[in-house]
Amino acid sequence: MSAVSESFWAELPLGRGVTLIAQDANGLVAFDKPAGVLSHPNAGGDEPRSLLTVRYMLEGEFFQWTPVKGGPLLKLWLLNRLDSATSGVVLAAADEKLAQEIRAQFKRKQVKKVYQALVFGTPRPPVELWKDTLAVVKKGGQVRAALGTGRVPAECKMSLVRTGRGEPRVSLLRLEPHTGRSHQLRAQCAKRGMPIVGDQTYGNFPRNREYAKAVKTKRMFLHSFETAFEYEFNGKPYRFAASAPLPAEFTAVL
Questions:
Q1: Which of 6, 7, 143, 222 has a CA-to-CA distance to 152 between 20 and 30 Å?
Q2: 48-88 per-position pLDDT tens digit
Q3: Do 202 and 186 form a contact (C-beta atoms < 8 A)?
Q4: What is the pLDDT of residue 135?
Q5: Distance of alpha carbon 186 from its chain centroid, rounded?
Q6: CA-based torsion, 3, 9, 10, 12: positive or negative
Q7: How far apart are CA 245 and CA 107, in angstroms?
Q8: What domains sit in the chain, N to C, each tagged with a CATH number?
């Protein structure tokens, strides 16, 4: 029997376009977050454009709200984050103890994450292990990653999925990060002369403008495609996996 009632999941105050794509009996859940939606509110007034449109407690990293029909305060713990411009899998848990276990899995690098990205150019070779060092700087509420200037290792397996036929030439890449650094994938793609289409920080700004005008879609083409891991809860082993379908705007240009 589910540890969390079906009504809890059915009545979640989901943000615009957010969909529930996987859940298990322990209260672990995965959402598909659209591009442009915040993983959580960062400031007052952000709730309407967040994963859940309710108050978020930064200290405990959880959403909390009172049901529309009344009753006790409800909570949902956020387990990972995506940049607003990135779409795809975001995890949460309805149990604090479970949340602590899954967060520990992330810290131990035992969570498999797969992203897909549309980039300008074509990789040579088509499969490669990217190894870099980077420095992550936070200034004025903004995060910036600089490759080659720090000592923090950043590793990712890159595989070419397919390349478009038109101009400018774009390619769809499968990216499997072995480390989870802020902006890692965006910086690693840019360093190799293949900036992610629509990236407003590390990208090719003139080409972004031209491409957005041509395809009539303005977004960063980075998507958290799959997340999978094994975990232990209340003395029993479990496996959890979730996949967020690749948005149509990715395949429409290939």
A1: 222
A2: 999 999 999 999 999 999 988 778 899 999 999 999 999 99
A3: yes
A4: 86
A5: 12
A6: positive
A7: 26
A8: 6-108 (3.30.70), 115-222 (3.30.2350.10)
Q: What is the pLDDT of residue 2?
A: 46
Instruction: Return the amino acid letter for 178.
Output: H
Residue carrying structure tokens 């009996």: 25
Q: Using CA atoms, how far apart are residues 64 and 74, in angstroms rounded to an integer? A: 5
